[in-house]
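Q: What does the assembly look like in three dimensions?
Context provided by user:
Components: two
Sequences:
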Amino acid sequence: MLNKIIETTRARGAEAGEAFMLESESNSVDFENNNLKSTNKIQLKGVAVRAIRNGCLGFASSSDLKDPERLANTAVEVARSGEHAELNLPTMMEFDCPKDMVDEKVENTSVRELVDTGHKFIDKVQKYDPEILASTTLQTAKARFSIANSEGLDASYEKTIFFAVFMGQIIIDTTVIYCYRQYAGTRKADDLEFLMDRALEDLGRAKQSATVESGKTTVIFTPRAMQALFEFLRSGVNGKNIEKGISPLRDKKCEEILDDRITVFENGALPGGLGSAPFDDEGVALKKKPIVEGGVLRNFITDLTTSAKLHDVSSGNGFRFNSFTGVQDYQSTPLPKASNWILESGDVPCADLIGSVKKGVLVDQMMGLFTSNFLAGDFSGNLSLGYRIKDGQICGRIKNAMVAGNMYNLLKDNLIDLSSETENVLGEGTTAIYPYVALKDVMVTV
Amino acid sequence: MRDLIRSTISKLKDKADYLEVRIEQTEKSTISLRGNDLDTLSSGAELGGCVRALYKGGWGFATFNDLAEIEKYAAAAVDQARTIGNTKSALADVTPVEDEVKAEPKKDPRNISLDDKLKLMKSYNNLILKFSPSITSSAVRYFDRSHRIWFGNSDGTNIVQEKLDIGGSCTAIVANDNTTQMQWALFGSSDDYSVAEGLEDKLCKVCSDAIGQLKAPKVKSGRYTVVADPMLTGVFVHEAFGHLSEGDNVYENEKLHKIMALGSKFGRDILNIYDTGLTEGARGFLKYDDEGVPTEKTYLVRDGELVGRLHSRETAGKLGEKVTGNARAISYRYPPLCRMRDTRVEGGTSKLDDLLSDVDEGLYVVASKGGQTAIELFTFSAGRAYMIRKGKIAEMVRDVTLSGNLFTTLKNIDAIADDAEQHDGPGGCGKGGQFPLPVSDGGPHIRILDCVIGGE
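A: Here is the predicted structure of the complete assembly.
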């Protein structure tokens, strides 16, 4: 189908054409409020076409595939109003496939098994504390990505996806506490019980409430919190923001921008990584690259169009995704987006990191972080779940305090340490691995 | 399509307590300009369907693009429900409806070429970029969608709806070494392309405000009395109260249900809040929700007391309350959840000047960049803000974010002005991975005591 579509675009006067198809099937089960609520089946198939006609770009997508010619025609028609296309479509290459993209174990997981796992979690929670309302979603999926273009590219790959989230809600007076742990990757998770136990542990710690005073204090951010905060860097190195001149990092390649203990890799070839693939959504190979190395800025994240504007080659980060949720979406035009993201760990065991804090806060969940000036690194979030640290011990939960600061400043001048342990938290459709990060003098307002 | 739905349901309805089928056909256009570049110019089409089956309290849901296989997916949904259901189904009763709803646009976006829409957006983009050398960049966005939705269920409801959704924003971006600031104009409608036209004067003000924000100092964090403008009031009521009113928060949650007992005092006597599907032309306008239930104006708070919730048939059924028509799905790819429509604080009797005059030092906060809520906690950031000094609006401050505990904050609304407005923008509401759902909101100026403001 894809090659026929490209032929049609050429027949309609386009000098170049590209067709991209996403097909996927998935099964999931949902438990809510301690009950098995629903099982869901998803079948999805859609195609997106880019056509370049008289040097101008048009884009069209459809999941109504009875008439693929119509889709091709629409793309060429849109190109009439389009603007000059900067990109050059890539040719066929040899692609390396990351390890474990298709896990038989995921394909062989039945809905029954997902249901049994869910029941296991519910039972565990009820035994631990019948006041807790447990919810879980477990999902298996298999997707096929295909791309072809008029330069001879014709490639496809498959991947399996396994997803699990375990959540508990507890209400104390009028305070609602959620704790959750999740996993997503191409491989079947091998220790879901570990995640279940961690979620319960978090809830246990949150039962007691604590208060803190307003002021600057030591804050340890959990891996989940760090993933949210690192939006500052993902946006900062995003080729679109670079080439539009609005990123503060635009002239800072090879400069030290953060503490020299900070190293960040972006890795689309990570074995088992949720965002792993042999090539991006434009047919450019994915590879592992440093974003920041020892505090020094190394690479930007680009797609074909932005790299052309920056007079460089694409970094293999052209993805089609829903700009609100970060989830894969063939209906979106390709934009630069980070694949799997890894902040390298430090030397200090987490227990010692917390143990050496006389007075501080462990921050886990925040809300409304970057509605403000995120490109400059400013953040200001409402703490939906944190914990008070006193004399090296976690002693109660904190909610409803504002935590604010500037990530560039904090990670340059205020870094105490990074933990030696890391956790695999979910990014936006990618794997994201972070340690715990301790920072001094972070503003907390109650 | 109607026949396809009818036949699919008739073949399977005896195997389920409830069965529904929804098929959607959508056409959409998207334009996005950033700085000097046309980032996105696209045309999209969608065709797909979904089936939901309920059996002994268990739901089976299937969504598919392959309509030729609809019976296979419907059977799968029914099988799934039968496999997991083991309690009792409880759906509130509704009278079956047969209806055909046509969109009656004042100015139909389908009659305007993509080229003309692009020309209009480009003109706004150029206006922003040429306004002043202080303007660093711009972002202009436009979309429109037209949907044809066929819905049928085992009660005999059979509805065809034609719906339009139009929206966009024009943003001026200014930056210096210390900060980047943005101000914007928003538009949205379910029946009128002309909301996208004639924005030139508004954009000039947007540009001046953005430049003003750049020079403004950061707000000092702390607790303030806040006077919120109608746009911010709308976002506030949506985030801080609307989500909590969604029936699925409480219908299987005893503790939260107790906290949200009807009749409980949530605010002072002056506070009235409602959510309505009846605002014609608003993005949140809805004749029938996605379970085929007719929508209405639903009071949530009256004279400070909790009087209502936003229900789906199941949440209403389980709580023994009446349906309200709030079951909405963002597309055929998802099952409906309890969602908002057009959420408002009702206008009061005070004047804006009265709200301001009692404030010795406070904040006047205008519009919002958006917000988030986690049951009893909310947070959002202001579009822009000014200090209030000795009863008057004074100097601009920037980077104002508001947050708090919903219960305390609602009770701290101590004055409500009489100047209620309704707003639409291009954004939407997010819940359960379904984002952005078209919603509207609004209200008058309100005064909130003791608000936590984050900042430097």
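Follow-up: Residues 215 and 365 of chain B are 17 Å apart (CA to CA).
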